[in-house]
TrEMBL record:
Pfam families, sorted: Fer4_6 (PF12837)
Protein name (record): 4Fe-4S ferredoxin
Organism: Syntrophotalea acetylenivorans
Highest taxon, organism lineage: Bacteria
4Fe-4S ferredoxin-type domain sequence ranges: 4-33, 34-63
């Protein structure tokens, strides 16, 4: 039959594996470092995995394919084994980190790390990441932690961190990703930290666009960090 089905561009795919948990049917696996559609009858063609691909390697095409089979999906899910990274990128696996240690890092005056999630790059974080549930979200320009010396202790503690650069990254994709995150999760608050330079205000703009598009009424805060490390 002719129907919609997922198409994966192996030239674009970097094997990050974010599409695997995004596919509830288990139709995608990482094989030899690339995402593969393992069986046509496991793919419903709805494209839930599209928004989780940071490389835009997944599209929907219309072609001849076996009919979607819900029973085959159930059988595949029951037979699934613990995930193995087949040459993909384990460093991009979404994970909630343990509470920070109270021990000061030896040889430094720094306090303990307050980072509670990984990954932190907005481009790599799927909207379904478990650490996004019931959280206070901190969206920071990626220069902020370098410019502000007390970033961890003053702003990061107890929050889920996402970072990006509105000048060098794809802002439109960021708006779509952040909108999906806000819609699919119970985000308790959203704070945006950006640099005082004009181009960095794009982060604030995209956050406001995403918040408006989500239709949610979430407490919102904006903080401007000066290039000399002060709070404006």
């Amino acid at each position: 039959m002719i129907r919609n089905i997922v198409k994966i561009d192996e030239k674009k795919c970097n094997g990050c594996g974010l599409c695997v948990p995004a596919c509830a049917e288990g139709a995608i696996q990482i094989i030899n470092g690339k995402a593969k559609l393992i069986a046509d009858n496991l793919c419903d063609g709805l494209g839930a995995c599209l928004g989780d691909c940071p490389q835009d390697a997944i599209t929907i095409e219309k072609r001849e394919a076996n009919e979607f089979d819900e029973q085959a999906v159930v059988a595949a899910q029951q037979a699934v084994k613990p995930p193995v990274h087949g040459g993909g990128c384990p460093s991009a696996q979404a994970q909630k980190l343990a509470p920070p240690s109270k021990t000061v890092i030896a040889g430094t005056d720094a306090g303990p790390s307050q980072l509670g999630n990984w990954p932190i790059q907005l481009k790599l974080v799927p909207p379904t990441a478990p650490f996004l549930a019931e959280t206070d979200l901190l969206l920071a320009a990626d220069c902020v932690p370098f410019a502000y010396p007390d970033f961890h202790q003053k702003y990061l503690g107890g929050k889920t961190l996402l970072i990006g650069c509105p000048k060098l990254d794809d802002v439109e994709a960021y708006v779509e990703k952040l909108t999906a995150i806000l819609i699919q999760n119970n985000i308790k608050s959203l704070a945006v930290l950006h640099m005082e330079v004009p181009c960095c205000t794009g982060l604030l703009s995209l956050a406001r666009q995403a918040l408006a598009a989500s239709g949610k009424d979430i407490p919102f805060e904006s903080v401007i960090i000066g290039i000399k490390g002060d709070v404006k």
